[in-house]
Amino acid sequence: MHARWRSSRDIVAGTDYDIMTPDSPIGKAIEGAKVGDTVTYTAPNGRELSVVVKASKPLA
Q1: Is the pTM of this model over 0.90?
Q2: Backbone angles phi, psi at 25, to 5 degrees
């Protein structure tokens, strides 16, 4: 199953960027991961989720 979620605080207005902060559960999980890696993290609701890193670059 492929899921894509967004919330208003995760999107930079007027862009298609998904923003994950380094201290969020998914941010911690993807830190150091490379494109193609699958990472697993625990969502705030306690559910364990796995995602594949498609692309990543810091906002400058």
Answers
A1: no
A2: -55, -45
Instruction: Tell me the C-alpha distance between 35 and 37, whole Å.
Output: 6
pLDDT tens digits, 18-48: 777 888 898 889 889 999 999 999 988 999 9
d(CA 19, CA 58): 9
State how far the Cα of 18 lies from the Cα of 9, in Å rounded to an integer: 9
User: Poorest-confidence range of 4-13, 32-41, 46-55?
Assistant: 4-13
Residues 6+ positions from 39 with CB-CB distance below 8 Å: 29, 30, 33, 50, 51, 53
Phi, psi of 53 (to 5 degrees): -75, 115
